[in-house]
Amino acid sequence: MHTALIMDGNGRWAERRKLPRAVGHSRGADAVRRVVEEAPQLGITTLTLYAFSSDNWSRPAAEVAALMDLFRRTLAVETGRCIREGVRMTVIGRRDRLSKALLGRIRESEEITQEGTCLHLRLAVDYSGRHSIQTGEVGPDVDLLVRTGGEQRLSDFLLWECAYAEILFEPRLWPDYMGADLARAVNWFHARHRKFGGLGQYGIAHEKAGEVHHIRGDRWLR
Question: Of 8, 126, 143, 181, which is the active-site residue?
Answer without folding.
Answer: 8
